[in-house]
């Protein structure tokens, strides 16, 4: 947008535009030592390499979502790795856990969810009391801190007091008490003529990354495929949010779309079982022949759990993108093999 004179013109998220002090909530602003940060995309390699001996999982299902699943799962089953999963639903990651803790769902706890696509926020009230032995994340963390005799006061600060401090100056005209009383309030937004860059301006090339040889503008680098190789694309399907709701509507379907010309070339009919394979592993899927994908391209629903316990992300590489460090799920190259 900036190339044609648009001051603002695209949207990715507004987390950097609001003024909630998340560093205070995480405790980052109260400690001197910065925590170690590992790329989520490359986490499978780190786990396999033994970088983590204790893993605590909550709010995610990495045994389906992380790329390079073979490496991740091999790392989890090592004898010197201990994993705890804290979740309201039984999922694939729990199968690898040493301890499973039941978590409260959004219906069983009070919370404030800061929006990422608009500026209005309201307190989320609890509908029912926590069922069984389920506990929310804060209750578990405080309980662990007490067992470990952690003396830091920030760990034991009542959560709503911590939130009030973090929201200081973050609301446009309302008070935090009005938010607690159930009113819809509006967040204050940072000035639109300021940018979260080192120069405070729109930068077509990063001052820091530019020294590493980056070009002025992003460019498209086509994924290379060899003879009898295919580009495997994936995307979400409407019944699921990532891997959620499989316990309600059933597993994400293990299917693959294939162009009629590619199907004929490989002697494939509708609903045939095939393997999609590369150097990382192989997954099985049922074929659906369609003109909705071009020649040389396959498509599957993302993160399907797969047949025989081998998930889709087994064949996805764990190499982070050069720009931004994101995943390369849609740069996955596979061969088609007979079952």
UniProtKB/TrEMBL annotation:
Residues 251-332 form the Molybdopterin dinucleotide-binding domain. InterPro entries: Asp_de-COase-like_dom_sf (IPR009010), MoPterin_dinucl-bd_dom (IPR006657), Mopterin_OxRdtase (IPR006656), Prok_Mopterin_Oxidored (IPR050612). Keywords: Iron, Iron-sulfur, Metal-binding. The keyword Secreted does not apply. GO terms for molecular function: iron-sulfur cluster binding; metal ion binding; molybdopterin cofactor binding; oxidoreductase activity. Pfam families: Molybdopterin (PF00384), Molydop_binding (PF01568). Gene3D superfamilies: 2.40.40.20, 3.40.50.740, Dimethylsulfoxide Reductase, domain 2, Formate dehydrogenase/DMSO reductase. Residues 42-147 form the Molybdopterin oxidoreductase domain. Belongs to the prokaryotic molybdopterin-containing oxidoreductase family. This is Molybdopterin dinucleotide-binding domain-containing protein. It comes from marine sediment metagenome. The lineage of its organism: unclassified sequences, metagenomes, ecological metagenomes.
